Amino acid sequence: MRRGLLAWDEAEVSATALDARVERCQAAMVTARFDALLVYNNFPRPAAVSWLTHFVPYWSQGVLLVPKSGAPEYFVSLSPRVAGWIDETSHMGAVISTPRLGVDLAKRLEGEKRIGVVELNRLPGGVAKPLIDGLNGATLEDATAMYRSVRHPADDAEIAITRKAASLAQSCLDNALSSNNYTHTGPLTAAIEGPARLAGAEEVLVEFAADLADNTALRRIDGNLPLGDRYALRLSLAYKGHWVRIGLTQDNHTIDVASWLIANLDAALAGEGTEKIAVAQVQFEACIGSPPLSVMEALPDGATGVVNFTLLIDGNTHLTTVPVLSSDGAIIRLT
Amino acid sequence: MTPVHQERRRRLMAAMVEDGSDAILVYGNAWQCDYLRYVTDFPPLEGEVLALFFVDGQTRLFVETAADATRAKVEVPYADVVHCEDLTGDVCVELGRLGNRSVRSAPASLMPYGISGADLPIDVEDGTPLIDKLLLIKSPIEIEAVRRAAEIADRGYKIFMEACQVGRAEYELVAEIETFFREAGCPENFMIVGSGGVEVRGMHPPGERRIQAGDLVTTELTPAVDGYYAQVCRTLVVGEPSKAQLSAFDVYIEAVEAGNAILKAGVTASEVAKAENDVFRKYDLGIYCTSEYTRVRGHGVGLFVDNPPHILEDVQTVLPAGSTVIVHPNTYHPDVGYMVLGEAAVVTEDGYETFCTLPRELLSVAA
Q1: I need a surface site. Which of A30, B104, B113, B342 has the fewest CB within 10 A?
Q2: Model ipTM?
Q3: In chain B, which segments carry CATH 3.90.230.10?
Q4: Does B87 touch chain A (CB under 8 A)?
Q5: What's domain B140-365's architecture?
């Protein structure tokens, strides 16, 4: 709930690139015989609409209507006063401000027969009920699989922005951890988050396992906890709608885990450790729908994502997260 | 379990007994989790969560993301946490196991279609009013959390004033505030800003615009402490305020004081809004109280940034003692641009108490 910079820079992602994504969707809609596609978005579920239009919501909710051809239309429960700001920060067709999303969408869809909805089961009741009540003979069908089929591979713009997010996250972490010996979570969080936001991060979440001897769960800290001798932290950072995570463990053993992972990423991904390092868990996350990152068995080919490693070193848990790109069957680090 | 959550559970269980409900299903996400937090004390960080709370206090948490599930197991150890591959499907299966028990769900507006539109073997009635009543009236321990949030909001605004220098971008101001809040251990803040002159018609997330001499800079800061938000809205001028800016702002001061003057237990949201709007109407500025120029004339605060009731002339909700609201006549002024003013307050039997120490005046910083 703490958006930082929201802005659209066409040098980073061009209107042409966004149009191409919409056209990928529209081509799939023809195959799936959808007359229109609806994509819901709100604060925790911004990613699908953001991928298609560059728009990232900070408040309220909206539904992007992708027609069979032409520019998407955005129905949003924000005041018309915000329409200019939406225009500045995104690339889409008409913006329709309405407090009655379902009712007005149903009117707009008059005459259509098959309407695909990305993540239909997650559509909020306050939108779904009036939409269904207002549809005249049309059916809503889940279009999640269709959307996922076109979501990857990432285009050049997505890869470049994700690399930038990863680089920003890495440098903020490196600078914070090299400049001071922190004893509590609050000041360390501030030392990471402040520079990240000054450098244009849209969202910053710093989670801690503040004392690994006590608990290994990563949590956002409400208050200010002392850092134990061994602690882990994970920075999740969004830049222009693109999320990465970088995680690390601070401890006093002599093994350079970061260097080991760089040299042995493929082995680690396969769960193969060394005499000193055991790979206990490998977890992949990528953007495949409206959540920014979702856990999955394996990254789709061509996707940017992250890998969360749980390692065991001398029996102690060591958490590490790296941002990656899946390319031609290989996993490549982004930092 | 925190003392504030023990108190909430006690009130919830009493309300469920009175209502005759055996269980209530609540929804929350990383944007709006007031119902979920009231019932479970768990705030999702990234995804969506559903919780089934039974009248005997048993709690099952159905969590979308692996990260939230891991956190939930630590933060709410009294709950049975389930990480779901199919969130709505798993909850429907669970609801199907409840037999002929009396089950409610809330809030109706956010309940996913996979549940609200599912063909369930049991009737699930809308429990939104039941929770809304609990959310509206704060206990003393909840008011204390709002007070602490208001305190940190005041301190944050002072940081904002220091950061507000000519040449700095809007997002850089926000970076300064967020740094301060994190350092102070405050994990959550909602804020929007506006900067410029007569062309500015509202606030939005920070952009790349750089502060200029003579700008009006508006913000609402809304930090949370223990999940409870308090909001402060202030307007400042970069440089010496002009006569037009001072004169325009006098209307907002008069309106906020008119709204707060009638604030006490038993007054309606409509009456408060009318008191604010009458001031604007007195100066032939009534049109700027309409939805073309402003969203609301204030709202509730608590476990969400924007709780009911909305302070609007067509909202008849009665404000009880213990409700926490912000009266803010934020809107556009045709002479100078968008201006904001207001602060969170708790409604009492004979008036209100605010925890804000910032003066109700047009503030300024050196250009």
Answers
A1: A30
A2: 0.92
A3: 140-365
A4: yes
A5: Alpha-Beta Complex (3.90)
